[in-house]
Amino acid sequence: MQIVKKLMKSIGQYRLQTIMTPVFTFLEVLMEILIPYIIASIIDKGITAGNMAEVVRLGVIMLIMAFASLFFGIMAGAFAADASSGFAANLRQSMYENIQTFSFSNIDKFSTAGLVTRMTTDVTNIQNAFQMIIRIAVRAPLMMIISLIMCVVINPHISLIFLVALFFLALVVFLIVGKATKLFRKVFRRYDDLNASVEENVSAIRVVKAFVREDYEEQKFGKAADALYQQSVQAEKLVVANMPVMMLVVDACMVAISWLGAHYILDGAMTTGELTSIFSYVMNVLFSLMMLAMIFVMISMSAASGQRIAEVLEEKPSITNPENPVMEVKDGSIEFDDVDFAYMRRVVTQDKNGNDIVHEEMPEHKSREDSTLHNLSFSIRSGETIGIIGGTGSGKTSLVALISRLYDVTHGCVKVGGRDVRDYDLETLRNEVSVVLQNNVLFSGTILDNLRWGNENATEEECRKACEMACADEFIDRMPEGYHTYITQGGTNVSGGQKQRLCIARALMKKPKVLILDDSTSACDTATDAKIRAAFRTAIPGTTKLIIAQRISSVQDCDRILVLDGGTVNAFDTHENLLKTNRIYSEIYESQIKGGGDFDKPQ
């Protein structure tokens, strides 16, 4: 019930259409119910009595009712389509808006493919179910109840036949729907796996082709598709069994009513017209039950979808603004005070009904040293340029993610501008702490469009200056359309180094107090890398700059260098002092510089 209430909030401005659909459906059913009664009168009072005037009069009335039923049906269909489409649009909008508030830990909880499935396939299932509920779920019970009443009025004894059939069919529907619901939940989990395979293949298609792994990817997709097929067939077999059972019962009812009706007519207890109308009403009752069965099946499918959608809508961002947030960052100073950080572990369990229950929990650690980052304590003065270096998995990216509060610490605190980052308004903090992430992303649009992500009101001249600092002007000026050159989705029409420089320029557009480059010049040659760092020293001397790099040449000119090892600070000093006192740093230096250096660095 809570899930239904959550979903129904998305009806929003389509309440009128939602209400008018059952209203017109009721009028449509009313006209259809009266038509068999008119037909019975035509047979008994017109044809049997030989009164053609009565036949014409009642025929005209029936024709008017038929056209009225058609009009009401069209209006009900139009309102239902408008209401269900609008409901689905609002549902997707609500999900998307909530996803935008998620922290990184929230996003880690749901796979990208899973979110795509929920916003497409699952919402479509809910849309179809909603449309059936506001129209067919109103039409079928009304048709069944009123037809049943009319049958009882005409002949209560014959009505007992389909009352027994009604009970039997209701039992069959209940059993089928109960089993089908559990199977459809498994089907939608298979959809996630299939979408994940497609998404991964398409996004990495260049790698797939470069390594000639098309056959492997086809096999992987085939396995996911086959698993979906097997689960779908199993669920659909149950659903399709519903129809032949219903038709068998309908046919049996018709035979029984025909046999009894013939006897009643011969005995004079029933007229031919009344038997004809009973046939119509019985068919209405039984086919209404069939429609209800379809609704139950659709609801069983959409129940799983509704739960998955509700999970997204009910997910609360793990990182939120404090009650009275600080709206200004004083300067770019940074302090880590006894900081630990561990990634949450995603755990999926099932309840007794087979529903997935997704929750997060901290991994089991015997000590603080088992965390991703532990015992971090150091200070950075505003305006300093800090290099961060360390082996793979040493925690470099995790460390800088805490500064802009993409994740929250599990122990201790991180301060920016002398205040705990948890005291700041999130938008204020992230505008002042600009991050160029390890995985650079450009969006479809012009170069200017991408640069203005950093400042939507920036002039073209301001964009040019940022590109000069990032050394991006060198290749932009060579492009035929310059800053108006269109960037394809994912930035596939620019090189890795060009993409990195555009992302750096975009970050500079924010004019931040802290600039973090997470291995963001790795695809640039050392000469370009040096130019970018030189530009930073002269153009933004008051900005605190944190440079994560794998190359010693990228950090050796920094004011100080932070050496990470196993999630903790191994050393924090100048390049010269580290060479003398730190084994890890000196070994990296020896292997890179004395071992031949960077291939693109002038010897």
Measure the end-to-end span.
72 Å
| Rg, alpha carbons | 35 Å
What's the arrangement of strands in the largest beta sheet? 8-11-12-5-13-14
DSSP helix count? 21
**SS strand fraction:** 5-15%
Mean pLDDT: 82
Outline the low-pLDDT stretches: 599-603
Description:
By secondary structure, this protein is α/β, with parallel strands linked by helices. Helices cover 62% and strands 12% of the residues. It is built from 21 helices and 14 strands. The chain has helices spanning 2-8, 15-47, 52-100, 104-109, 112-134, 136-154, 156-203, 205-210, 214-240, 242-267, 272-314, 396-403, 426-432, 447-451, 460-469, 473-476, 496-508, 526-539, 552-555, 575-581, 583-594; strands at residues 334-341, 345-350, 356-361, 373-380, 385-390, 411-416, 419-420, 433-436, 445-446, 486-487, 514-518, 544-548, 560-565, 568-573. Strands 8-11-12-5-13-14 form a 6-stranded mixed β-sheet, sandwiched between helices. A 4-stranded antiparallel β-sheet has the order 4-1-6-7, covered by helices on one side. β11, α18 and β12 form a beta-alpha-beta unit. α20 packs across α21 (583-594). Residues 599-603 have low confidence and may be disordered.
SSE layout:
Elements: H1 2-8, H2 15-47, H3 52-100, H4 104-109, H5 112-134, H6 136-154, H7 156-203, H8 205-210, H9 214-240, H10 242-267, H11 272-314, E1 334-341, E2 345-350, E3 356-361, E4 373-380, E5 385-390, H12 396-403, E6 411-416, E7 419-420, H13 426-432, E8 433-436, E9 445-446, H14 447-451, H15 460-469, H16 473-476, E10 486-487, H17 496-508, E11 514-518, H18 526-539, E12 544-548, H19 552-555, E13 560-565, E14 568-573, H20 575-581, H21 583-594
Parallel strand pairs: 5-12, 5-13, 8-11, 11-12
Antiparallel strand pairs: 1-4, 1-6, 2-3, 6-7, 9-10, 13-14
